[in-house]
Amino acid sequence: MITRRMLFDLFRFGGVAAVAAMLRPARAGESTVADKPAAASPRRAPVPVRTLNGWTLPHRMRDGVKEFHLVAEEVEHEFAPGCRAKCWGYNGTTPGPTIEAVEGDRVRIYVTNRLLERTSMHWHGLILPSGMDGVGGVSQPHINPGETYVYEFTLRQNGSHMYHPHADEMVQIAVGMMGLFIIHPKQPEEVPVDRDYAFLLHNWALHPGTYRPDPSIMQEFDLWTFNSKVFPAIEHPVARTGERVRLRIGNLSMWNHPIHLHGVEYDVTGSDGGRWPQSRWRREVTEIVGVGQMRDIEFTAVPGDWALHCHMSHHTMNAMGHGIPNTLGVDQSGVEKELRRLLPGYMAMGQTGMSEHSDHVAAGLPGPANTLPMMTGDGPFGPIEMGGMFTVVKVRDDLAPGEHRDPGWYRNPKGTVASLASKDPDFGNPVRRSGKA
Ligand SMILES: [Cu+2]
Fold it and tell me: How far is the CA of 258 from the centre of ligand 1 (A)?
């Protein structure tokens, strides 16, 4: 039987690509032998990181050095079913595959440029020789199309880190070039985690009906993503009741994102600066992950379906119009027919709010080509009315250790669900102040 300890030792002290492939987190619906947590005990070996909707780059050992190979290239990417785009990434995906290694490792990383313009690779937050820092023109010549550069350095720290180009960043990052670089500590952690998830926050200007993200946009983005996916396509982080879960969250977007998790008070336990001493851990329910930052949050899983999302409410929506007239409270019944003469198919909406939009979507009304509805999704109790940076952490008593299947919707214990009390608006005797319209 292969234990996780054995896998980790292979991983840590030099395995082969096959071992790396075994350690690769499973994609949705795929099981894996690699991340069966051992019995709870302090200072045990870490579990491999699971990159939401993503994967870990296999490596090979050569002369005691861990060799990786990244390829910058255009990729065909699906944000969620119904919306694809030509993006740029690494090794066929955006974000690129996660690099996972151990403090003290010497790594050699080849970077091949298959784009049509020059690039470079910056190892964001890593302590390394100046000439390995990857700032095009400053630390090295750019990597021209067709060229491969090699970076080599020793990992002198641990923690959650990132990689991205430092060349034509406005375009290259905007269209998806980024990845995670996770360095496990040499000594197993004092408070071990059972599950270790990682994702990058990003924003995209994929205007309705188009197939190329627009790099010129600074604020009014159309898509807000965890690992380049939007709700409902973001993989559910899952856990077994009582497990300790870490989420490593990095931000290479153009906005700061307050990341909120329901159901628990979590500890903010680390950043690009590694795992903080326990005396510095902070209890929060929302943590702003600033642009260029990483934050690690950890919690003990309690059973239920718990929303995990950015708290900027526009960031949990998909494509929406910007700068349009406000229809809230506007009776359009008189003009709807007139407008239809100019705009066939025009449908007045927004008078009472935008919930009806998700009903229109559910009824099958089409929007622009290749464009996701602003809000979507169906839960056990009806429309979810979300998009963008939103997913649900699912915690179950009966989820096997290391199992990543989607367990479906939570079955609430009897008597623990909010329920209808009355359909009469005049129900009860609530205290209200004047101000009613
Ligand atoms: Cu946000």
Answer: 6
